[in-house]
C-alpha cells in the first residue's frame, strides 16, 4: 500500500454498532498539511475515494469542493449520498464531517476514464527544466509538512520571490516521495500543489481555498506529473487559480479552477 | 420585473399547508430551452437565486452544478440546505427536484461581489466585430427557443460550419432581448450560452453538460456581455469547455468550466 493510499484510506461503516454503509471513516493525516491545515487537494482525494466507492465506479470525473472550515488531522467521516447512478456516470454528494461540523462539501461525478488517445488537445505541456534542475524544498528553510510526502519541484523562472514580482504563473513537477505512481485520485492533489500564484505578485500569506472544481481527464502514466497554475483576475481580495496537469507522456490528465482569498501577511 | 427575473423567480414555502422555508418553488419556463430542454445556465441561475435567498447573501460567488437528468418546463422545486453561514461567505447545497426526482445538484458559495477595480488581470477581452456585424439567429433556420429571450451574436470567424472545421473556440456577445441589464445571476446564463465548441470540430449533435462550475467575479455593467469559450481536450467522447465573460467595460465578470459529452448526430 502506497503512502498516498494509506493517507487517503476510507473504511465503510458496513458493520458494527455504528452500521451505516453511506458513511466512510477516514483518519486525516496531519502530515499532509501546509501550516498545520491538511491540504485541500489531499482532502478532496480522500473524499473522492469515498464517493467513487459509494458509487461503485472506478474514477472521479468531475469533483467540486466547497470549503467550509479546515479540519485538523485525526478522525473524520465522509457522509455520502448517491444522487443518481446512470449508465455512463454516477453522481454522489460527499461531505467531510469532523466533530459534528461539516468541513468540506463535495459533489463528485464518477465513471470510467477514457483510454482512447485524445481527438483534440489545445494545451500542450509547458516547456520547463527537468525536475533535477528545478527548485525543491532543499532550497528553502520554510517547512511544509506536505512536502515530506509529495515531491514538488518548481520551474526556477516561476519561483515566488518577494523581491522580484512577476506574472502570477507557477509551473513545476510533482511526484510521490515513496516512488509510487500517481493515480487518478492523486491528480486531485496535483491540481492544488502549487504555492498560491498570487505569491508571484508579492501577495504572500495564507490564501485559503473557498472552492475548487477539478476535472480528471485520464489515468496518468507513471512518472513525474507536470503542472501549471495561473491567476486570471485578482480583485477585492479574491483570486481565481486555473491549473492544468500533464502526465509523463504529455497528456492532459487534470484541469481545475479554484476561488481563493488573497492571504494576509502572518 | 424583467423577463429573466420572471423566468428564474423562486417562491419560498414560508407559509401554507406545505410550509418548509428551505424549499423554493419555481416554474421552469420551457421558452428558455434548447431543443426542448431548459438550458443549463438558465437552470443554474434559478437555483442560485434560491440559494442566495436561503443564505441571505446578495450574490453567488462560486456555483458548481452536477447535472443528473434534464427537467422539463413546468413546476419544480429547489431544496436548500445552508451548510455554513460565515462572516465572508455562506455555502448552500441546492438541488432541483421535479416529479420527486433530483435533476440538478448544486453547491453555491454566496457573498458580496467586490466593487474594487482588479489588482491584476491576465485575460483581456477578445477583439471581435461589434454585435451588429456578428452572426445572429436571423442567419439560420435552426430554431432555438432560448434565443427568443437571449440575444446571442457570434463572431463570424468562430461560427461553426461543418464544411469548414476550425479550432474549438467560439466568441460572441450576449444580451437580454427585453433590454434589461444582465445581473450577477444572468452571468450563469452567459457562461453556457455559446454553442458547444466541439461543433467547430465538426462534432455536431446534442452535447449534454455533465458538470459546470462557474465563478462570478463582479456585477456586470449595463450593456452587451462578451464571451469566449474553448475546449482544451476532446477524448473518448468527453470534452471540457472553458468560458470567460466580460462586461461592456471590459472587466472579467465570470469564468466557468464544464465537462460535457460529445453529441451524436441526431
Examine the coordinates and then state which fold CATH places here, giving the name of the CATH topology of chain A. Porin
CATH class of chain A: Mainly Beta
Spatial extent as radius of gyration of chain A: 18 Å
How much of the polypeptide of chain A forms β-strand, as a percent range?
A: 35-45%
Q: Please mark out the parts of chain A with pLDDT under 50 across 5 or more consecutive residues, or reply none.
A: none
Secondary structure tally, helices of chain A: 3
The CATH architecture of chain A can be named as Beta Barrel
Q: What spatial form of chain A do the alpha-carbon principal axes imply? A: globular
| Major protein interface | A-B, 57 and 57 residues
Tally of individual domains of chain A: 1
Oligomer: homodimer
The CATH homologous superfamily of chain A is termed Acyl-CoA thioesterase, double hotdog domain
Report the strand count of chain A.
Answer: 16
* Sheet/helix structural class of chain A: mainly beta
- Give the ordered list of helices and strands of chain A: HEEEEHEEEEEEEHEEEEE
Amino- and carboxy-terminal Cα gap of chain A: 38 Å
3D structure, described in words:
The structure is a homodimer. With about 270 residues, chain A is mainly β. The first copy, chain A, has one domain (about 5-260): Porin (Beta Barrel), CATH 2.40.160.210. Helix content of chain A is about 10%, strand content about 40%. Chain A has helices at about 5, 40-55, 185-190, and strands at about 10-15, 20-30, 35, 35-40, 60-65, 75-85, 90-100, 100-110, 120, 150-155, 170-175, 210-215, 225-230, 235, 240-245, 250-260. In chain A, the strands form two sheets. In chain A, strands 1, 2, 5, 6, 7, 8, 10, 11, 12, 13, 14, 15 and 16 form a 13-stranded antiparallel β-sheet that branches. The first copy, chain A, has a two-stranded antiparallel sheet with strand order 3-4. The longest helix of chain A has 16 residues, at about 40-55. The first copy, chain A, is globular, with a radius of gyration of 18 Å. The mean pLDDT of chain A is about 95. Chains A and B meet through strand 5, strand 7, strand 8, strand 9 and strand 12 of A and strand 5, strand 7, strand 8, strand 9 and strand 12 of B.
Amino acid at each position: 500500500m502506497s503512502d498516498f493510499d494509506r493517507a487517503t484510506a476510507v473504511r465503510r461503516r458496513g458493520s458494527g454498532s455504528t452500521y451505516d454503509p453511506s458513511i466512510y471513516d477516514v483518519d486525516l493525516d496531519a502530515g499532509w498539511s501546509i501550516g498545520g491545515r491538511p491540504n485541500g487537494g489531499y482532502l478532496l482525494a480522500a473524499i473522492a475515494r469515498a464517493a467513487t466507492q459509494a458509487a461503485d465506479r472506478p474514477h472521479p470525473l468531475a469533483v467540486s469542493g466547497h470549503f467550509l472550515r479546515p479540519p485538523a488531522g485525526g478522525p473524520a467521516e465522509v457522509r455520502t449520498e448517491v444522487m443518481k447512478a446512470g449508465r455512463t456516470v454516477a453522481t454522489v454528494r460527499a461531505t467531510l464531517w469532523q466533530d459534528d461540523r461539516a468541513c468540506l462539501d463535495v459533489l463528485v461525478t464518477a465513471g470510467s476514464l477514457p483510454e482512447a488517445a485524445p481527438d483534440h488537445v489545445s494545451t500542450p505541456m509547458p516547456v520547463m527544466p527537468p525536475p533535477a534542475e528545478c527548485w525543491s524544498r532543499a532550497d528553502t528553510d520554510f517547512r511544509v509538512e506536505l512536502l515530506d510526502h509529495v515531491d514538488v519541484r518548481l520551474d526556477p523562472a516561476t519561483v515566488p520571490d518577494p523581491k522580484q514580482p512577476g506574472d502570477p504563473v507557477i509551473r513545476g513537477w510533482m511526484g510521490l516521495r515513496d516512488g509510487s505512481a500517481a493515480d487518478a485520485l492523486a491528480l486531485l492533489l496535483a491540481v492544488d500543489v502549487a504555492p498560491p500564484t498570487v505569491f508571484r505578485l508579492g501577495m504572500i500569506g495564507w490564501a485559503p481555498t473557498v472552492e475548487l472544481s477539478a476535472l480528471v481527464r485520464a489515468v496518468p502514466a507513471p512518472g513525474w506529473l507536470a503542472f501549471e497554475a495561473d491567476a486570471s483576475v485578482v480583485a477585492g481580495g479574491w483570486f481565481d487559480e486555473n491549473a492544468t496537469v500533464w502526465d509523463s507522456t504529455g497528456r492532459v490528465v487534470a484541469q481545475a479552477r479554484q476561488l481563493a482569498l488573497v492571504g494576509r501577511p502572518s
